[in-house]
């Protein structure tokens, strides 16, 4: 059976609540090494927690907000100039991900969007309810409710015999029931506590829907300060930067 490990590189929200890094999960599954989202602080988090950027072959993006994808310009330039990468690098994301990344590169480092990369750079566009394969990893995208200037998705990963579900950012949608079904791990955002925040999940809603989320293990992430202030009083597993989960 393929050994799968998930390292939380960042479980924070867009505003740095609790001093946490922005969303990024490093997954090791057999010979596959990939990221789920890559927030602006992700390269710093890799240095902090001992993850070699050069080991990553694929980044899967749930949506195109900066706290979920804006680490990519820094990661790509690190691989270009510091890591001197030659192996291919693949970005799997919603329609528009390629252009959004090029725009971000140009804003942050003028001229870099026209650079000749020293390594093959590939883009794979996710489609709703379709499965895409990269190496030994298969990912299926599910539309969710979170405006980001492009489609936003929850993602379900098959890594050998292990399944990982990831909500991305969204308010409640029944798509999450399918994402969670039978998963060894469901990583779900829980931005607020008992307040319904537009286009985000809250603990009250998740608690009322817990029986429908038929995952073996549920991990709460992307928590605001109001939610972080209450984690000691809830009987749910919550993410911490640096946490290692073995499946």
Describe this entry's structure for a reader:
This protein is α/β, with parallel strands linked by helices. The chain has a single domain (4-246), classed as Metallo-beta-lactamase, Chain A (4-Layer Sandwich). It is 20% helix and 28% strand. The protein has seven helices and 14 strands. It has helices at 42-49, 66-69, 72-81, 97-108, 175-180, 203-208, 225-228; strands spanning 4-10, 24-29, 32-36, 58-60, 89-93, 121-125, 131-134, 137-143, 153-159, 162-166, 185-189, 218-221, 237-238, 244-246. The strands form two sheets. It has a seven-stranded mixed sheet with strand order 6-5-4-3-2-1-14. Strands 7-8-9-10-11-12-13 form a seven-stranded mixed sheet. A hairpin with a 2-residue loop joins strand 2 (24-29) and strand 3 (32-36). It is globular. It starts with a strand and ends with a strand.
List the helices and strands and how they pair.
Layout: E1 4-10, E2 24-29, E3 32-36, H1 42-49, E4 58-60, H2 66-69, H3 72-81, E5 89-93, H4 97-108, E6 121-125, E7 131-134, E8 137-143, E9 153-159, E10 162-166, H5 175-180, E11 185-189, H6 203-208, E12 218-221, H7 225-228, E13 237-238, E14 244-246
Parallel strand pairs: 3-4, 4-5, 5-6, 10-11, 11-12, 12-13
Antiparallel strand pairs: 1-2, 1-14, 2-3, 7-8, 8-9, 9-10
Please tell me the total number of domains: 1
What is the highest CATH level, the class? Alpha Beta
CATH superfamily: Ribonuclease Z/Hydroxyacylglutathione hydrolase-like
Task: Tell me about the largest β-sheet.
Answer: 7 strands, mixed
- Residue share in helix: 10-25%
Low-confidence runs: none
Mean pLDDT equals 97
- Structural shape: globular
- How many β-strands, per DSSP? 14
Instruction: Return the CATH architecture.
Output: 4-Layer Sandwich
Distance between the termini: 10 Å
Q: CATH fold name, please? A: Metallo-beta-lactamase, Chain A
Query: Which structural class fits the helix and strand makeup?
Result: alpha/beta
> What fraction of the residues are assigned to beta strands by DSSP?
25-35%
* Main sheet: strand order: 6-5-4-3-2-1-14
* Helix and strand run: EEEHEHHEHEEEEEHEHEHEE
